[in-house]
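Instructor's aside before we start: the two examples that follow are unrelated to each other. I chose them only because their records fit on one page, so don't look for a connection. First example below.
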Amino acid sequence: MTVTTSDPTTATSTKRVLLAAPRGYCAGVDRAVVAVEKALDTYGAPVYVRKEIVHNKHVVETLRERGAIFVNDTDEVPEGARLVFSAHGVSPAVRQAAAARSLDTIDATCPLVTKVHKEAVRFAKDDYDILLIGHTGHEEVEGTAGEAPDHVQVVNSPDEVDQVVVRDPAKVVWISQTTLSVDETMETVRRLREKFPSLQDPPSDDICYATQNRQVAVKKLAPEADVVIVVGSANSSNSVRLVEVALQAGAGSAYRVDRAAEIDDAWLEGATTVGVTSGASVPEILVQDVIKHLAAHGFGEVEEVRTATEDLMFSLPRELARGLKAAGQEEKRPRREQRTSLPVTPV
């Protein structure tokens, strides 16, 4: 099996796989997963985790096997136990509930989500109506909205803009969930600005770099792909968005799977080019299983379509870093680089 790096618009091989890069783990997911692993290594099982640490079945199952216990809320955790907040963040009310139970908390919230929380707090302090573009019920949206519940209203899509009502059209700002479709978010903003010409922007992009990079890579390969397979769980917002982006960018069809075993071989009938990518909470081993499955069906040539190189790395949560130091352990860890198990030959 050969892996090359190429531009899909010039490739002419048949029965090929276009493998998106970047794909898979982002810095925030890596930090959160490592936080649970190191907490288990340092303190032993059980370590409690509020909600799923990241939205990926394989990751959650693997950590559960090691002794992590996933709960829906703080009242399920024994008083005085150790609790990790997921990468999606929590509201001040959740933090207060944890403190009331004397829980030893480790905050694994992605720093890019924390940035959005701080924006909500700042704009609420200045008495703005805050329009949070995101998906109602998603943990990240619940956490962000919880920072200023009297000022925040969630806008799920462009179609909801007509229902938005604010106190003062001159004091309105938008912020967003970090894992949305860039194009759909900008369309929502466009419609909001038509309705509220004084609408203010957040100080910087809220949609995270990893979400944007993965969407750009899919857009590049999608026009050449008969089928795009996105590896990611159903509750992973950024994975679901990748399916939508692939279809909008011209893919013949696009599907999401948690693992290779979920691929319906009927999807591959008549296809000569299959695009493959994965959401930001997906370990590379799951992508490689998909590549092997496709190879067994004649898609033996794998061409990497790279649109960016990511080297961002976040430090571990400070509570955990202090614990590691007290235990005489190093905070440093090897970065989980996105790489195939096959040789990559630039062309």
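Example two begins here.
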Amino acid sequence: MLPGDEDDQLYPISEVARCFGLSVATLRYYDQLGLLPPAGRRGNVRHYGRRELRRLALIQHLHHGGMLSLADTAAALGERGPDGVLRPPGRAVLTGTIQRIEARMADLQAAQRRLAHLLTCPKNDPVRECTHLRAELDRNVTEALGR
């Protein structure tokens, strides 16, 4: 048992949803995916303990921050899919995500450089008249035509 897990208070799904800014349907979906099973049920109402709330905070940290998809979040947590098959190890998911983020960052930096150039271009209408941009567009057209 981890420190903090000894708190045996259980929280109903509606309270957890409200406190974490989620819908009840989202928590049910997380349960359906195997991401966040409740600690127990009282009647038909799911209840969550401290351990589950910490896991929910981790899911939000990984998923809602835009870092990982829900499928990748489940894989990073080492969950089994609905078919019972263990998903790839978390480190592989994290490594792949880092590579995609780095590629996206490179694309964004290139876009930033292009826009910064257009701001400093001496032409009156740099978007339409910039010779540097026009040359780049001509290369793109030639490449697209396969010539």
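The mean pLDDT is 87.
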